[in-house]
Amino acid sequence: MPDKVFEFLRSMICICLLIIAGLSIMAYSEETDDYIHYQLGIKFKNENKFDQAVEEFRKVLTAYPDNYNAYMQLAEISKSQNQPELEIYALNKALTYNPGWGKAAIMLSEAYEFGKQYQKSIMELQKYQQTCDPEERNGVQKKIDMLIKKVQGSVAGKPESDSLNSFAISAKDSMTGKSAFDSLAGHKNSKQTRKSGPKDMPVSAEQALKKAIQLNEQGKTAEALQYVKKAVLLKPDWAEAYYYAGMMRYKQGQLDLAKTNFSKSSSFPSSHYFMGKIYGTEKYYKGAVKELSTFVTVARDSVQKQDALKLLVDYKRKINDTTAVLPAAVQSAPATSPVEAEPVQPMPVAPESAQVVVEMRADSFMTMQVVDTLTNQGQAMLAGVNEYKAGHFEEAVKTFKKVMSTYASNNVTIPCIYDIGICYLKLRLFPNADNQFDNLCNRYPDHLLAARSLFLKAFSAFERGDMTISEKLFRDFIRKYRNNAWTGQAYEKLGDVYSDMKQYNKAMDAYRQAANIAKNTADQISSYFKLGNICFEAGNPEQAIVSFKKVIETGESAKISSHVADSYYKIADFLYQRKDYKTALDNYTKAARKYPDCPETPWGLFQMGNIYINTADYHKAIESYKELIAKHPDDYWAKQARWKMDDAVWENEYKNVLQ
Q1: Does this model's pTM top 0.70?
Q2: Which of 322, 359, 496, 635 is least buried, going by the fewest C-beta atoms within 10 A?
Q3: Same structural domain for residues 525 and 643?
């Protein structure tokens, strides 16, 4: 009897255990379904059953669009099947969801190199170099140097056949819009990086270039180049647009593209200077001598001209050219230049009371000087300011020169010289601008505008890409004018110089100094915002978040919206990458609701929808996508939201079926 009881109890225990195991398997099978698809994909891939492998990885991505490992597997399959376009697409997606992934970055660079897209290959390595292990950097740099030589060998000193190609956004994916895998696997994927296509494009070339300048000053070079391209399309052969593009490319180290741009802007003297420097870098010394010789014959004395003369001596020696650096006629006569500068000699400054000088804002950055507009002199100068505001910079120069010749007095001459220098800055005629500012500093060293002229000369060096000279001049300004109203801005621009030179610690110190002594809240906010950006770039996200929070706090307290919405988005983007969806959603929501007119609002609504999908709140995801489509129907992210909304509807229905 006891044996029968024991057997019965043992049977019951076994049955209970089997039931529990069965329930566990049922519950677990739903959770591991996607894992099984991934493992099946690996199995089929190892067996060279690529079509079946792709189908399994597609199933993984349908449930988890941010599964970067699945994209890597697809990239490896595409590579083995010699499908470089699909490989590049998959690797871009993998890096979108796992930024800084060394394996993906190197594979993407190699894929671009295989397709002879050397510039893109270099850019991928440069991005990876910023985050890779320090021990790897020398090896990465050697690879970059090798690719640069390939670029130089492919162009051989000749401009590209299609000049508009030089404006292509180098960070743009090789495939956009519909997924490259749509035809292969029937599933849609979108570009998830925070990068908008061109929107709200200006209707005139002048407006487009103005927008490009503003974006470039904000550090948005890639987006700025889209507007430069628009300017050239609207106004072909516009030298100013090509010159500006050349400067941007030169600062980025994209020398072959810069060379193409400068060749289209030869009417700007500095184009020859930079062409000469580029040819010298490429060791094409004959071409360098030709370009630099052209430059020095039209340039007046300046730091840039002195540098050009030194380079000429060196390059002529390398090619055994024994001719004089400058022709005798040029050595014995003043250089021909649009600037009709007077002899430099110290002159007394007229008493301040002799004539009232009024400062007038000319645009978002520059202010111009005019005498009392109740006088004839003031009215004549005001006409020059109005020409400037209308974008007629050459006419403004002529007007101010006419005023100087008509009303010969220091009180008119000094502001006119200064205003002419500003006009040349806007024309990107940097040597001409430097001549005006040097003239004012040397002849009227005690005048208020002497300090501003030194500042603008430093700014001119920054704009033409000469960071070494710019750093020196800004530091000279800070040393000489510790309590000047522009000292805070000098620190901020010095931070920009160090940022461009990748000297992150010095840049951070300069931005902190700028924020501490800013003359107004708007300047303080600008410095905090730049400090946040450089902290991110230097790999210090915690300090970056602190700086962006200061922008938000200071801006909202002072009711200044500039940079506030962008700071919310910077914080939210970082938190989204960290998968801190709750806090990221809070920041996206505040930015989108408080600042609906911000250009980034479509991105914010798109990301809100993505967060709701990641947290399985499909109804709210659909609402967010619908709001984006309704309010911004023509925006890039609205188009992406349409298919994301379809996915959200499908996933919501799928979830209900499972339940």
Answers
A1: no
A2: 322
A3: no
